[in-house]
Description:
Elements lengths: L8 H13 L3 H13 L7 H13 L3 H13 L7 H12 L4 H13 L7 H13 L3 H13 L8 H13 L3 H10 L1
Helix pairs in contact: 1-2, 2-3, 3-4, 4-5, 5-6, 6-7, 7-8, 8-9, 9-10
Amino acid sequence: xxxxxxxxxxxxxxxxxxxxxxxxxxxxxxxxxxxxxxxxxxxxxxxxxxxxxxxxxxxxxxxxxxxxxxxxxxxxxxxxxxxxxxxxxxxxxxxxxxxxxxxxxxxxxxxxxxxxxxxxxxxxxxxxxxxxxxxxxxxxxxxxxxxxxxxxxxxxxxxxxxxxxxxxxxxxxxxxxxxx
Length: 180
């Protein structure tokens, strides 16, 4: 990140490559990020996928999550919701809030898994409790409208919408302003 020294992506790539070759999952993940963003190296979704896969196989949650995103978007790999669900599940089991939120979305929309509003809410709640503003917003909206299997409950809705707004969720701020 350039702390204490000038930022140098080429040098970072060199050191991450050495560590990744020795099997360090965080270095493998960081190489994936560098390839995904074209920092210090030519942009390559296929190479990003390759390095994320190596880190994910070692249980690295961020890499597992990024593989899920790549499968959802068909980025560097054929779109495959079932595979995305698999990788999000692995990252979510480690408490990674963004993966938990995405499992909620997948259960909500029936992507890669049968639609199940109760399980969607369960995953949204886990993600919300782990600080996901998007999950907090979704839970708040469901309580506000009495949707997705949750009862209409203004107190709960306001509670979750305020949490989302405090976490920077712009739409939650707009909804709250409209409720005042």
